[in-house]
Specification:
The structure holds two protein chains of two kinds. By secondary structure, chain A is an alpha/beta fold. Chain A contains 14 helices and 17 strands. Chain A folds into two domains: 138 residues, Aspartate Aminotransferase, domain 1; 255 residues, 3-Layer(aba) Sandwich (Aspartate Aminotransferase, domain 2), CATH 3.40.640.10. Chain A is 38% helix and 17% strand. In chain A, the strands form five sheets. In chain A, strands 4-10-9-8-7-5-6 form a seven-stranded mixed sheet, sandwiched between helices. In chain A, helix 12 crosses helix 14. The N terminus of chain A is likely disordered. Chain B has one domain: Sufe protein. Chain: A (Alpha-Beta Complex), CATH 3.90.1010.10. In chain B, helix 2 crosses helix 3 and helix 3 packs across helix 5. Classes of the chains: A alpha/beta, B alpha+beta. Chains A and B meet through helix 12, strand 16 and helix 14 of A and helix 3 of B. The structure holds pyridoxal-5'-phosphate.
Chain lengths: 421, 176
């Protein structure tokens, strides 16, 4: 424990375990109380908390060098532009993108997917073309394709999952046709925790020359992501899931794809010359970033990525898996509790139902013990339908959670049951 | 039952409760005996035979999914029942509602719905004498995230009386 690293030298991979007590001090919100009890934050899959490194990086921007980017010769603008573009390089490194020109800042995963749908596919899709996704997608990787299908006459096809919440890869392979134009797949499911075999799906798709879009919203907080190793074509993420600010995320795509895609929003920043006889678009990545960007957000996102790198994602993942195993083992012993999502490989997410207690009531009661968890459909209604539940309760761990917090949750669960019995 | 006769005090889970936050925010105020009791044995928890109007109330966010059906005799709600899957607050509210509306005219029921909304709007509202036992649900007003649950049966009943098939209590999805 002693060698746990909060601020190791940049780039050093820590060898030790995560020192959770130390790490917790990086997150100011963790010291607050809720209903007179210490906060136990188990809703990390909805959004994680922010460490001081992120908060201070954004604060510094606003206090010391706030200016618009790429627009002025004055010193503040130069500093802001440098920090903004440095953030792009940091994020390229974070997912091992071959070039920072391939990093498009977006509002988050949702906007990244919509960008791909509208820019990369809408102009070329023909009636009868197919988009193939999986049954466990988040609404943000379903609805943009439904809209696209309505616009173009293309067809949305959905690969099945099994009762453990695992993708049936062979079935997906069997659904590939010569009309398949894209495979969209969630890297880690927010509703089930399932880690999908993305590399395998990409290999499969490559044989048919079909591009693959990966929804990485739930992956980047927990896994080391290497887009070249995955061999995917589009990768989307949201900063707020990985300890960064809200309202910022990114799309990574292969440069050749981005070059071929038309801009999807027009305005400032994305042009190089405008006249009424014609407008010349800016080069990558700016072609896709119309208007003043979320500068502080990009800076905060990069700070979050650096923070995760400083702790070492393998150490983070090992700690979270330990919590997942511990909590899963305990919850399996709770009478009437059913875990929804029991895949072989899982991120630190446990969705469940409890006989006789509606998730709504569970959420309210547990909140009173200071425990934040999520109830509802988790923006994955097709998953709820598959498991024939209207809603589930879900706990999801972050790097700062502890076994003691799992125990507080289990105790609150028992009290909820007593109360409603 | 009149307001003020609530029986939270002898709730057996009292001793397990966390330190009391302001009284109305306490869990025992929400899960008071009458709500627990109506949740455990809801009244009119079936659709009445030969109903003339019904609607489905679905809250996509929470997963509450109920159907409310009404037998009318002229302007009067002869019998009202509900079925479905819902949380304790929705179930108790539906149960209390179906009792309250029995024998009342449509205009009285719609007025009741308005009054009920008003008392749920604000924890400081006094009881509304017209609402009788429904005032017991006022404690929900201190739990803003749960007010929608108490209202769902009423919205569904209003939809049924207006000849609509479905109400969806969610207009906007939050982020997961
Ligand atoms: C798996 C998954 N995909 C996509 C999203 C959408 O991300 P955002 O709302 O940040 O755009 C989320 C979370 O909201 C998610 O969990």
């Amino acid at each position: 424990m002693s060698e746990a690293l909060v601020n190791p030298e940049p780039g050093t991979a820590p060898t030790g375990r995560l020192d959770v007590d130390r790490v917790r001090q990086d997150f100011p919100v963790l010291s607050r109380q809720v209903h007179g009890k210490p906060l136990v934050y188990l809703d990390n899959a909805a959004t994680a908390q922010r460490p001081l490194a992120v908060i201070e990086s954004m604060d510094r921007f606003y206090r010391e060098y706030n200016a618009n980017v790429h627009r002025g010769v004055h010193q503040l603008s130069v500093e802001a532009s440098e920090a903004f573009e440095k953030a792009r390089r940091t994020m390229a490194g974070f997912i091992n993108a071959p070039s920072h020109r391939e990093i498009i800042f977006t509002r988050g995963t949702t906007e990244a997917i919509n960008l791909v749908a509208q820019s990369a596919f809408r102009p070329s899709l023909k009636p009868g073309d197919e988009i193939l996704i999986t049954r466990m997608e988040h609404h943000s990787n379903i609805v943009p394709w439904q809209i696209l299908c309505e616009q173009t006459g293309a067809v949305l096809r959905v690969a099945p999952i099994n009762s453990a919440g695992e993708l049936l890869v062979d079935d997906l392979a069997g659904m590939i046709t010569e009309r398949t134009r894209l495979i969209g797949i969630v890297h880690v499911s927010n509703a089930l925790g399932t880690i999908n075999p993305v590399r395998e799906v990409c290999r499969l798709a490559r044989r048919h020359d079909i591009p693959v879009l990966v929804d990485g919203a739930q992956a980047t907080p927990h896994l080391e992501v290497d887009v070249q190793d995955l061999d995917c074509d589009f990768y989307c993420l949201s900063a707020h899931k990985m300890y960064g600010p809200t309202g910022i995320g990114l799309l990574w795509a292969r440069e050749s794809l981005l070059e071929a895609m038309p801009p999807w929003q027009g305005g400032g920043e994305m042009i190089s010359r405008v006249s009424f006889s014609g407008t010349v678009y800016n080069e990558l990545p700016h072609k896709f970033e119309a208007g003043t960007p979320n500068i502080a957000g990009a800076i905060g996102m990069a700070a979050a990525a650096e923070y995760l790198q400083s702790l070492g994602l393998p150490a983070v993942a090992a700690h979270e898996q330990e919590l997942l195993d511990y909590a899963t083992g305990k919850m399996e012993q709770v009478e009437g509790l059913k875990i929804i999502g029991t895949a072989e490989g899982k991120g630190p997410v446990i969705a469940f139902t409890l006989d006789g207690i509606h998730p709504n009531d569970l959420g309210t009661i547990i909140d009173h013990y200071g425990v934040a968890l999520r109830t509802g459909h988790h923006c994955a209604m097709p998953v709820m339908e598959f498991f024939d539940v209207a809603a589930t309760a879900r706990i999801s761990f972050g790097l700062y959670n502890t076994r003691a917090e799992v125990d507080v949750f289990l105790d609150a669960l028992e009290r909820a049951r007593k109360m409603l019995d | 039952m009149l307001a003020g006769s609530e029986t939270g005090g002898d709730n057996k889970s009292m001793s397990d409760a966390p330190p009391q936050t302001p009284a109305s925010r306490s869990l025992d105020a929400l899960y008071k005996r009458i709500i627990l009791e109506h949740n455990r044995s809801p009244r009119n928890a079936r659709l009445p035979d030969g109903y003339q109007a019904s609607a489905r109330g679905f809250d996509a966010l929470c997963g509450d999914d109920i159907r409310v059906a009404v037998c009318l005799e002229g302007e009067k709600l002869q019998e009202t029942g509900f079925e479905g899957e819902a949380c304790a607050v929705t179930t108790a509210s539906a149960s209390l509602m179906t009792e309250w509306v029995r024998g009342r005219r449509i205009d009285q029921v719609l007025d009741g719905a308005r009054r009920f909304r008003r008392v749920l709007d604000n924890p400081d509202q006094p009881d509304d004498p017209q609402l009788g036992e429904l005032n017991q649900l006022r404690s929900v007003s201190a739990f803003p995230s749960r007010v929608r649950n108490a209202l769902l049966p009423w919205k569904t009943l209003e939809a049924a009386l207006a000849g609509k098939d479905e109400v969806n209590s969610v207009t906007k999805e939050p982020n997961p």
